[in-house]
Amino acid sequence: MHPNPAINAIMTEQADWRTLLGQRGETTLDVYIDLKSPHAYLAIRPTLEVARDFNVSLNFQPYTLSYKKLGLTKSVETDMQRRPSSASADRKARMYYAAAREYAVLQNLPLRSPHRLLDSDLAHRVFLFAKTQNLEIPFAMWVYLQGWSSGWREFELESYDQLRNACKEVGVDLTSFDEYTQDGGEGSTTLQNTMAIAEENGFVGAPHYVFTDPKHGRTVGLFGREHLALIRAKYKAAGFAKLAETDPEFSHAWQPTRV
Prior knowledge:
Elements: H1 5-11, H2 14-21, E1 27-33, H3 38-53, E2 56-62, H4 67-70, H5 87-106, H6 121-131, H7 136-149, H8 160-169, H9 177-181, H10 186-200, E3 208-212, E4 219-223, H11 228-237
Parallel strand pairs: 1-2
Antiparallel strand pairs: 1-3, 3-4
């Protein structure tokens, strides 16, 4: 249990998340996220609704974003402070977090802007370890909630010990944890492979969705959770809906109806 009741309220959903993650569907939706991305954080629960409404398997994968490529800073130094290249770039970066805060309110998710830049590489190796046990989303949400609730002041995304403890909190068996997540270990290799596949499918940011268009049979890559309505419409047209009355329409301002 966490002293923050908002975090505890969200984490009561984890049994449901595991059920949805374990679903084997008629097709697969790949979802690339970054554990330092507020917009990927916001996308987790709305994306899980795809598996609730359609016979679709969800495959969450990590991708380590570059702050420089995103334009949030012109350089990443050892002090991990943001260095905008211009006043315009600074406004863009601030809006990136301001928009996330507004949408977080709708989902009852705590979100405070980070006090520094973050390195999510190790966290993504741990994510992949948790994924071997179907616990990647409980792990990710525990980390997201811990980090964003304090603007990453009370949780160190680069801390081996805190990430290991996050695994324990959601029931991950830590056997072979050290070997898998160490530098040069299986986690590092798997992470690089998943990132390469994402880039082959047009990756530009997180969340990034990759799926086979049921009508045309071609691979489609889309950036941003605003595309969930389009993805759902394609799945509805293909006959993947669990119920005939399933509505493919889906608001970017989605709010949970289950507690």
